Amino acid sequence: MISQGRLLEKAKIMKLQSGQFEEISYLGEKFKFYGYLMQFTKASKPYLRVMESLGRVGLMVGNMQAVKIESFSKTEIVDGKPQVTVKFSTALANKAPWVNDEIAKA
User: Fold this and answer.
1) 74 Cβ contact partners less than 8 Å away, ≥ 6 residues apart
2) Which one has a higher pLDDT value, 53 or 1?
3) φ and ψ at residue 102, rounded to 5 degrees
4) What is the pLDDT of residues 57-105, one digit of tens each?
């Protein structure tokens, strides 16, 4: 995660700061920790997304796109319902302008 943060810092999307920090636990209690504080910059604002199901904030780097359908399995009945497995290849499309190959692979 730190290496990804450093890549995003080079792209001016994130700022890393190391040291001792104070946080509030899920129980509302303050605690101190040593490590890295990762802060999004103003340049990241158009790409920030709230992932409500995870309770986290993330960066929208692009869209995963199905490029080619490789194969279909034969239809199987699972729990009384027909099921087919589809294998396909994907690629990152509509990349944010700051996403380079190094960031995409990280």
Assistant:
1) 84
2) 53
3) -65, -45
4) 888 999 999 999 999 999 999 999 999 999 999 998 999 999 988 888 8
- Threshold 0.85, pTM exceeds: no
In the block, tokens 């504080």 appear at 37
Which residue type occupies 60?
M
The DSSP element (H or E) to which 6 belongs, if any, is helix 2-10
Query: How far is Cα 18 from Cα 38, in angstroms, rounded to an integer?
Result: 9
User: What is residue 93's three-state secondary structure?
Assistant: strand
Q: What pLDDT does 104 receive?
A: 83
Contacts 24+ apart (CB under 8 A), 11-20: 11/98, 11/99, 11/100, 11/103, 12/41, 12/43, 12/98, 13/40, 13/41, 13/43, 13/44, 13/47, 13/59, 13/98, 14/38, 14/39, 14/40, 14/41, 14/44, 15/39, 15/40, 15/41
Give CA 50 to chain center in angstroms: 11
